[in-house]
Amino acid sequence: MNNRQKMYKTNSLVKKWLFKKGFKDIHFFPHTRYSKDVHFSGFSADGLARKENRLVLFQIKTNKKPTKKMLSLMNKIEKESGILLYWFDKPKGFQKLKVFCGNGENYNALP
Fold first, then answer.
1. How far, CA to CA in Å, does 25 sit from each of 14, 65, 76?
2. Residues linked to residue 58 through DSSP beta bridges, in sequence order
């Protein structure tokens, strides 16, 4: 499976999880050589959504958990701005999608 196929599969899992949890207006930013992610206060986002009329930014990685420093930055940004931040990690193989939130909550999501 090449990188584009992995990205498509992971994005599909994230999209299913977001819909299941009640997120609306889900938008993924294009991933091309010439486009850049959206950066907000040190958080690089791959997409945005809305939940309960709050803006949500999310980052999607394959096989990379957020560091403690990134989790504390996400928490700080959430408290200061009111924007919800999510980090999705899809480990290799058959492991479940892992979801890390700026408020400290973690989930094991869909396989």
1. 14, 25, 25
2. 47, 86
Q: Return d(Cα 41, Cα 21) in angstroms, integer.
A: 26
Instruction: Tell me how far apart the alpha carbons of residues 27 and 21 are, in angstroms, rounded to a whole number.
Output: 15
Dihedral (Cα; 1, 4, 62, 29), 10-degree rounding: -160
Rounded mean pLDDT of 25-49?
A: 79
Q: Which residues pair with 64 in a beta bridge?
A: none
Give the type of residue at 6: K
d(CA 26, CA 57): 10
Run of H or E including 28? strand 24-28
User: Over the stretch 78-97, which tens digit does the pLDDT of each residue have?
Assistant: 899 989 999 998 887 777 88
Which strands make up the sheet holding 54-61, listed edge to edge? 24-28, 47-51, 54-61, 84-89, 98-101, 106-108
Q: For all residues of the chain together, what is the average pLDDT?
A: 83
